[in-house]
Amino acid sequence: MKMLSREAFGRAADYLRNEARPLERALFAHHFEGGGRTAVLAALVPYQNADGGFGRALEPDMRAEASSVVATTVALDILRRVGATEETSGLPAALVYLMDNYNVETGRWPIISPAVEDAPHAPWWEYAASEESFRGFWANPRASVVGYLWQYRKLVPSPFVEGALRSAATDLLTYSQTMEMHDLLCYVDLLETPDLPGEMRENMIDKLRRVVARSVVMEPAEWDDYNLKPLTVVRSPQSELAAAVDAAVLDANLDHLLAAQSPDGTWPPNWSWDFIDADAWAAAEREWRGVLTLRNLETLRAFGRIEE
After folding, report:
1. What is the DSSP string of 83-147?
2. For the whole model, what pTM was predicted?
3. Domain annotation for the chain: domains and CATH numbers
């Protein structure tokens, strides 16, 4: 079995400690060095706006200061992973922002706002095309948003969040057996929400396992491309979706992940928008290296692939 050597782990750790954003530095310390979550919460503060939402390039491919629903779900994912509660600073305001941006007519959340155009951004974050590009927001960001609202439902009106959860779960069950990668990942976020109703959760697991088997790229020859890889969905051996991917495919994907580490210890993004704004992309690319390196270290540790 291939392992991430101590030397290779050290190179990744050095990058995270010295070159990554303060947020990824704090997250690395929290997840790998016994650091508390206080530093993580402090590192999130600069990304939160007065309206309660998050922006300011928390999602590195959007450089605008203004809040967006997608950046706010990124923040809530971080808060979930460090065990935030309803009393955690910044979290109640983020939920208020999400409720304020709910579209009553469509029952969805717009993934970005027009203010995304105020600063450099990747071409897939064009506001005018966003509703079409993201399939009417039926899953992305809706499924993720509903999961966070349900997890912290003490701060959200009960009839609303119960109805939103029921609607999102029903739509999943009536959808086709294949799914666009980001839509699927938003439903993975929803599935990982604590305390989902039992029968609803079991139905979601059954449907998502069938979707994963048909939507994830299982061929190693294609894993260098930007697509949905097994480990992007199956984040640990304990994942409810692990049964949808053959164990040999997961092992091969782990080997591929180890081989993709750069000499500087990082995992760089396999996408780019330097043809739009080279300087802005250079900043985003550095930030993505920290985000992806931390994420991949967590995955490798979860599967026991880091040498002790």
Report:
1. T--TTSTTHHHHHHHHHHT-BTTTTB--SS-GGGGGS-B-GGG-STTHHHHTGGGTTTTHHHHHH
2. 0.98
3. 6-302 (1.50.10)
